[in-house]
What does this fold into?
Amino acid sequence: MNNRWTTEEIENLKRFYPNDDKDTVLKNIPKKEWEKIAQKASSLKIKRNIYFFSQEEIDFLKNNYGILSLKEISFKLNKSIGAIGTKLYRMGVSESLSWTKQDKDFLKQNYATITNKQLEKIFNRKAHNIVTKALSLGLKKENFKQLEKQVFIDAFLLKAQETRCTPILTEVLSSIKSFSVASFNRYFGSYRDFCLEMGYAPNMSDLYSGNQVLFSKNGDLCLSKSEVWITNFFIDNKVEFQKEARYDKYIADEVCLKICDWVINDKVFVEFFGLHKKEFYKIKMDEKIEICKRNNIRLISVLPSDLRRLKEIFAEFC
It folds into this structure.
């Protein structure tokens, strides 16, 4: 397309861009792409009215409010949260989702002890709306961690009683829809250690419902065959390690919910970066590297190409 702007195109830009919908703007400036139009408007300091919503945007609000968060809607429509809130109020959409006194009283009495999944069913609202209202009322799930842990323990004991053997982790998780592998790792750490603490021999079976579940030789749950390979290397070479350790256990000055793949000798972090060439993954990888650097933690990064050189990489620990 021609990058030069005619006088007529600039006049139409000034006339239609601030308040008309995208289709109308494109119709009146047909030789320019929307990206070029937006760039030209910016260079001429022609601002688009943030409170103007096309019919397409209005339909999007109607279909997604209460499903997506305001932040997500803001990103999708490229408008401020304030503009979206004002539009919702004018549309009367937010009015239909207002909280009654009875709703708020129930939330105050039960928020700390009922899961968000259960609250979604009770209120017929999305979890982020419930959490937002709870925060505005000063409510917290202060005792919820212990409650969730007990839910898992109860499910474990019930499954063990049913099968008359130690259940595997995924077998227990399948009976608790609101609980995930990440939840388990956050609360208990190693599944092997959890089983031993409960007085059960760790179940290292690698089959469940026809799907492969990966475990190391000592029962640690692994997220890939490469993790199994590295974990078994540590076991075979008598390297002292902890699998799936929380970063903030070793960082005193910040709360960090990230999980480290392995911690050797309780001081050296080891991360397997299996998708380091993927841009989305590289962002997370760089973030972990920066956290370790900032907190003077020694980090050993292992890439897929390093799997055959583990003896060399970890020679000082073997």
Summary: Residues 144-163 form the longest helix (20 residues).
